[in-house]
């Protein structure tokens, strides 16, 4: 479950990387304590939720126009994965960088 949750959250953060919005990933990678990492996640979730609210469903996928491009939104990680990721970033600081690197990879 832990690996799947890391992938779900990395996929969400990867969406912002594709938009050239590196702030959430940078803050996650550079967090010296859990608080900034948690704040970055909260803001990323909120931003994605806002995009969902303005998106349209097409073929079972949620799509949104950003800067003239139609983008497919990633799945919002479920509550269990969210709890697991918060636990991971609180107890295992190196995993913050791992999560950021996963988001930067393809």
Task: Kindly give the count of domains.
Answer: 1
Order of strands across the main sheet: 1-2-3
How many helices? The count is 5
**Strand runs, count:** 3
Instruction: Let me know the average pLDDT.
Output: 94
C-alpha Rg (nearest Å): 13 Å
Into which percent range does the helicity of residues fall? 55-70%
Organism: Candidatus Methanodesulfokora washburnensis
Protein name: Type I-A CRISPR-associated protein Csa5
Keywords:
106 residues, alpha+beta, 3-stranded antiparallel beta sheet, 65% helix, CRISPR-assoc_Cas5, Type I-A CRISPR-associated protein Csa5
Structure description:
The chain has 106 residues and is α+β, with helices and mostly antiparallel strands. The chain has one domain (2-33, 62-104). It has five helices and three strands; from the N terminus they run H-H-H-E-E-E-H-H. It has helices spanning 2-18, 23-30, 34-53, 79-91, 94-104, and strands at residues 56-58, 61-66, 69-72. It has a three-stranded antiparallel sheet, with no helix packed on it. Helix 1 packs across helix 4, helix 1 (2-18) packs across helix 5 and helix 2 (23-30) packs antiparallel against helix 3 (34-53). The protein is globular and about 40 Å long. The model has no long low-confidence stretch (mean pLDDT 94).
């Amino acid at each position: 479950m832990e690996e799947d949750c890391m992938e779900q959250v990395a996929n969400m953060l990867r969406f912002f990387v594709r938009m050239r919005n590196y702030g959430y990933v940078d803050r996650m990678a550079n967090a010296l304590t859990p608080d900034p990492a948690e704040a970055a996640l909260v803001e990323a979730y909120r931003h994605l939720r806002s995009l969902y609210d303005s998106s349209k469903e097409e073929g079972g996928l949620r799509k949104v126009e950003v800067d003239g491009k139609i983008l497919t939104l990633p799945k919002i990680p479920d509550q269990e994965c969210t709890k697991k990721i918060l636990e991971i970033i609180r107890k295992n600081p190196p995993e913050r960088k791992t999560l950021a690197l996963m988001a930067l990879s393809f």
